[in-house]
Amino acid sequence: MVNGADLLSICPKFITDLCNYIKDIQTTMTMVVMSPPLSTLQLTARFSPFLALTSNQKLVFSNGCLQLSHKTWRHTMFVNAKPVVKDGVLSFNGKGALTGIPDNVVVTPWSNSSIFLGATSLGSGSRHVFKLGHIKDARLLSLFRFKVWWMIPRVGNSASDIPIETQMLLVEAREEHDESTSYIVFLPVLDGVFRSSLQGNLANELQVCVESGDPEVVATESLKAVFVNYGDHPFDLMKESMKMLEKHTGTFAMPGMLDWFGWCTWDAFYQDVSPQGIKAGLKSLSEGGTPPRFLIIDDGWQDTTNEFQKEGEPYVEGSEFGARLMSIEENNKFRWTSEPVSNTPSRLKELVSDLKKAFGLKYVYVWHALMGYWGGLHPDAPGTKKYNPTLKFPVQSPGNLSHMRDGAMDAMEEYGVGVIDPAKISEFYDDLHTYLVSQDVDGVKVDVQNILETVAYGSGGRISLTRRFQQSLEKSIAKNFLDNSIICCMGQSTDSIYHSKRSAITRVSDDYYPKNPTTQTLHIAAVAYNSILFGEVVVPDWDMFYSRHNAAEFHSVARAVGGCGVYVSDKPGQHDFKILQRLVLPNGSVLRAKYPGTITRFLLKIWNLNKFTGVLGVFNCQGAGSWPCKDSSIQREGSPEISGMISPLDIEYLEEVAGKSWTGDCAVFSFNSGSLSRLPKQEQFEVTLKTLHCNVFTVSPIKVYNYRIQFAPIGLLDMYNSGGAIEAIEVSSSLAITIKGRGAGRFGAYSHLKPRFCSVNSKEEGFLYTPEDCLLTINIPSGAHSWELTVSY
């Protein structure tokens, strides 16, 4: 028998079995893990590893690591299992979810598989913490806010492992001697003017905290505080749960910038951004063959003042967050003219128009905070006085204060925020966005969104204030911008996300910190986990990154499989074009996958789909960072190699692209090695990676065409997301397969027969064919952005 101490000595690593959501996340096989909190990393008696095996799993050793063999995957439909409460126990399909439910808990049936949980109190208050029942000896995953702005994951096996400010809880439901695994999701929601979050205590009781954010907004009950649903497939469960809660979500148009390569000015210049710097950055990226078509002019363009930073006085850390907006127009740096000999002031419009003309930009966004700027609006400035700003000092909820302090919030608590009068907020957004449109700006990145929950006192509470601001913001976006052009940021709270009816893109990670080596792997893992929830509501934004950096390929591969926008924040001239050209086509477009990239059932693997292929990114995050909120140290073991197994079945919903003619086998192309393998869908093979290393696998179902040709397109072999280049496949009766796609370079496919000839855009092209692995390679000439490739047999 292997105990926790033996496991640590064998392999201080993990399996992040997150599509089983957590099924094997605390075992030792990993490639996932970047030193999570002690509660998920150290395999002690309290946080024991998940070693329960089903009949089709085996416990094996490989390369010194204890591993679980791959579990046979079954894709099942949503479960119809009416919830039952009896003798203080909530169960679904005979599987217990909560025990010891108190008498004041209220259960409201919602569907055949779901309920709402709420509770009543003897006294009224603006904040209640209700006990809902016990959870013990059950594998679980929490997504919780560790700062007021941001969310990260944690796993455990009882309610005591559930952190304060948990916004999603997924629990594995199984009974002793029952090999089947099902899942129960707990989603704290918005109930009237109260917002809910989950937490556990040392008695293993699950609690719900409901709060209004305003001492004057009180209640004695919250009857629909937590939505609870049951299913036997975790992704289906999340999808169906959000559909049931669709009154909290909306439909939205997809901004066009998602399909184009972008550049953001923030990490290139921070607040010292200037027109000259922007031109230099766009010029160097374009000359390297990866022209940005999307630009974000980040913080530093606005007309602000800061009474806490005086010339000649020493800098005070955090004082920049005391700056306030003086007007909706640009500052003097951006009153720029293209004629250097002219002293005539210009407007932002001249710069934007010049940039679009000179560099072929399709979209130019600018940054602003939800309240205008970090410190809000200046109360007495002529340009902002009409919006009746009032200086308020943020007050955080006890839940936020239980985790990490945030420097920006600490500063705003000290300096205050000029809060716009809620009755004037629609006018403010409309004035600002109308002005920006007049300056040729195409959209906005709206930051600091969670500030509302801290300044809601005296304004009807956090839910009412957030609803009013979000509705006004989205109304202005719809009126002024043609393309639903908004990126939301610093808004990872249910207050914001459940009020977003039109906003399509939301950042789902903390900031990218290029100077902090311990956060690189955590950034990738946080997005992959958080996308479980946010990916059902919005397109997750992965933030910018540096292309010239020791973790550049790690970030690049994650963006390639993330189904997200791709944009860097390189300093001018500081680029790695070898990496960028694997992401960006010569015309500036990117090969974006179909869905939000989400973790697989084993390892830290991120799966996604293209139109005709699957794509799988595999990452070794071990030993490169530590999750916040726990006294966990960074593990450094030189550069440890970690091995694990991958399979075509790691890609969920692969049958969407497989079709009826699928043989059941897949062509699997490894980007790192350039090798092609044929693999039955249930089979697996081993991969080994060093810390901060990664690989991308294109998985293409092998289909039978014309009853005799076994064929599977891979795509552009030199792009991380090779299959994203394929737009359509057509088959003729004359034993010819035509692939329509975009982008130049080496096109590859699996073909069990050698073709007679190949043509690109009706012109015959030479090809290479290796019968050992059945890899067919054809060169798409440069300049052929859109093409038709015909393989004739």
Automatic annotation (TrEMBL):
Documented EC number(s): 2.4.1.82
Signal peptide residue numbers: none
Coiled-coil segments on the chain, per record: none
Top-rank EC class of the record's enzyme: transferase
Reaction(s) catalysed (UniProt annotation): alpha-D-galactosyl-(1->3)-1D-myo-inositol + sucrose = raffinose + myo-inositol
Entry keywords, A to Z: Carbohydrate metabolism
A Pfam family annotated for this UniProt entry: Raffinose_syn
Superkingdom: Eukaryota
Cited InterPro entries: Aldolase_TIM (IPR013785), GH (IPR017853), Glycosyl_hydrolases_36 (IPR008811)
GO molecular-function term, one example from the UniProt record: galactinol-sucrose galactosyltransferase activity
Presence of the UniProt keyword Cell cycle in the record: no
Protein family: Belongs to the glycosyl hydrolases 36 family.
Record's protein name: galactinol--sucrose galactosyltransferase
Species the sequence originates in: Escallonia herrerae
